[in-house]
Amino acid sequence: MKTCRVCKKQKDELEFYLCKRKGGNPNARHTECKQCAIARVKANHDPVKARRSHLRRKYDISLEEYEQLLLLQGGKCAVCPATKAGGKHNVFCVDHDHVTGKIRELLCMDCNIVLGIIKDSPEHLGRLASYIIKHNYEPK
Length: 140
Prior knowledge:
Elements: E1 2-3, E2 10-11, E3 16-18, E4 29-33, H1 34-44, H2 47-59, H3 63-72, E5 93-96, E6 103-107, H4 109-117, H5 122-134
Antiparallel strand pairs: 1-2, 3-4, 5-6
């Protein structure tokens, strides 16, 4: 049994996360229970701050610059007419050149995935289009 430093309740040791410090005791446990740890993380999570941090770290743009891009695109994907981004977070993906890092535009999740799969290759995309046409594609 172990006492949580936050809620002061005595709980089974399995109710505490393992400490994963290198070189330390591999069986050591944290001093706050899992429930208190989860509550602390939830209370301190700010989705806007997390989004700002992600955009700055990964693409070196601000949230305001992202929103300006979206406004310039009319609130939709740069490739298709989708106004819903899709995906877990439902935000448009920042499309960028993986070699230069230069930002191109914002894409919905589906367009971003396709672009990633074909590795930005116009030739590959052309072959896929030809394949679809070959198999009797009819526009809707």
